[in-house]
Structures are given as C-alpha cells and as structure tokens.
Amino acid sequence: DPVEDLGIIEKRPAKNSPGMTLILIGTYADLDTAKKVAQELIERGYKDAYVVKDENGNLVRK
C-alpha cells in the first residue's frame, strides 16, 4: 500500500454514507503530528485527506 509508511491503516464503513468506506491511517500522539501526516497524504495525491478524532466512537473532524 502506498501509504502504509505513515501508520496503521484501518477501514470502517461510513455511518452517514451507506456504501462508503472510510480509510483511517494511524494513531498519533498529538494534533500537529496528525496534521503533518494529512499534509503528506495531500502531497501524495489524496487531496481529500483530513484529520479526525475518535470521540466515543464518533469521528470528529479537526
């Protein structure tokens, strides 16, 4: 996989968009690190990459 060097890859069905799958990468110690990884993903061509936080099972965009 072209992004596995950035962290653990997890796939989840999107709760609010049936048929869509979310691709989650990594667990990071802080928001700055997560934002750097998101920027790296954008530079690699994943233009829709952004940071989310899991808050009690709900993904919240940061």
Polypeptide structure, described:
- With 62 residues, the protein is an alpha+beta fold.
- The chain has one domain (8-61).
- It is built from one helix and four strands.
- It has one helix at 31-43, and strands at 9-13, 21-25, 52-55, 58-61.
- The strands form two sheets. The protein has a two-stranded antiparallel ribbon. Strands 3-4 form a two-stranded antiparallel ribbon.
- Strand 3 (52-55) and strand 4 form a beta hairpin.
- It is globular.
- The model has no long low-confidence stretch (mean pLDDT 93).
List the topology elements.
Elements: E1 9-13, E2 21-25, H1 31-43, E3 52-55, E4 58-61
Antiparallel strand pairs: 1-2, 3-4
Question: Short summary of the structure?
Answer:
The protein has one helix spanning 31-43; strands spanning 9-13, 21-25, 52-55, 58-61. Helices cover 21% and strands 29% of the residues.
